[in-house]
Amino acid sequence: MWKNQLLYGDNLDMLSKMDDASVDLVYLDPPFNSNRSYNVLYRHKDGQESQAQIEAFDDTWTWSQQSEELYQFLVSGGSPVRVADAVEAMRRLLGQNDVVAYLVMMAARLIELRRTLRPTGSLYLHCDPTASHYLKILLDALFGAANFKNEISWLRSGAKNDPRRYGRSHDVVLFYSAGKTYTWNTQYTPFEQKSIEKNYTHVEPETGRRYRRGDLTAAKPGGDVDFEWHGVRPYKGRHWAYSRDRLDRMLEEGRIEFRSTGMPVYKRYLDEQPGVPLQDVWTDIRLTSADKERLGYPTQKPLSLLERVIVASSDPHDVVLDPFCGCGTAIDAAQRLGRRWIGIDVTYLAIDLIEKRLRAVYGESIVDTFSVMGIPRDVEAARALFERSPFEFERWAVSRVDGQPNERQVGDRGVDGVIRFPADGKGHVEKVLVSVKGGRRLGPQMVRDLLGAISTQRAAGGLLITLERPTPGMVEAANHSGIFHANRQGRSYPKVQLICVQDIFDGKRPKLPPVLLPYIQAQPRRAAVDQLTLDA
Predict the structure, then answer these.
(1) Which of 33, 184, 282, 311 has the fewest CB atoms lying closer than 10 Å?
(2) DSSP element (H, E) containing 329
(3) How many whole angstroms separate alpha carbon 217 and alpha carbon 181?
(4) What is the pTM of this model?
């Protein structure tokens, strides 16, 4: 049974684990460092930026070794040829700078997003004019120029007083389809008053309904369409557009009236018209500082903007994906419109805000309809994970020290995982038991319990991971726990070691022999490069 998903972590990692052709609509609004403060998602109460956000921003959108490695991966077979050519050309054109780092990181993510789209799916990329022209080149290379549908200009704010240039008040939304046949539901905007007054010039006295007169003839004949009806025939070179029976029925329904010349005309009522088909310049949607939907999120978009995109390019029960879901406007809109959804964000504060937003709008029962998954990047996120699921917190903590977490939360007797290391060159393996404590009540008895488990399971040593700082009594108990000897390394190590979550985030690691990694580390995917077909 489907369950909506809120994923906490790097969207490139999350996307690489998603199935091919599993999403109907992608909307993304990635941050860009044309204005550094524009991308600060939240601040702590003391005014400092969230450290996780700072790291996420700096690692992703500035040129670094990671950028270089990803660039080399893209141009050496890790992307479709056209994308590799585009990325390489832009580096030659722009040099090695933050803009190219942004484009390299976006290219990798767009490849994965293209892979996840169903053949009838669409992608909307929301950006500002600073980078939109570069991103369009990437999207043309990835989707094929024939699948470019629109460059939408959205008037996001009122008049700007930008010195020595025209006021910059619009965003760009690039709209691409995955193929020639794609989901499309035409949207309409109301007629302008001057258009109504010009075209709908007639009003029924008895009802007050405004209407315009429409022609009942056509240029091409089709069957018996040249008959005389109510004393008149079609003009020369024209033919009745409807059969005699259909004309009689429309007259009976009051949909036909006669000109002074005797020629019948059709009454097109204003209130029956859907409006003007939506164009690619959107000036009718705005989010002001006084709007009630404001959440204090700097880059928040209006709910009606996302509803417009979702209604146009998806149907009920389709899957909508937002890989930079921020404050969750796309998620809220998808939920409101009866779509299934997946949201990804690298900051816990964003994930937490979306959870609270959904609960506030839809009630507490909404939490049963979606799951929250992902890897914490700071202590507050780790604490939130523990509060949400102590077992998942334990699994996360054990994994951070290259241990293998327990598969089930039964009968662990305080042992939540194990770290293995080779005892000799003959294939024998020894183990270090891992115990994880997420609560605030800590004491030396926990160290003694771990020592008992080490003895019972004949393990070499133990590691105690705590969410809070260990107490002095725990430190003293660990210091008196003794040592174990690793024959292969010819070295001794503490019998019991203590490490807290903050130490892990700070890069501290326990003193252990070289360990056997429990999992094969994932490599960057080719993103089904060979399967990407472009409708040129």
Answers:
(1) 184
(2) helix 329-336
(3) 33
(4) 0.71
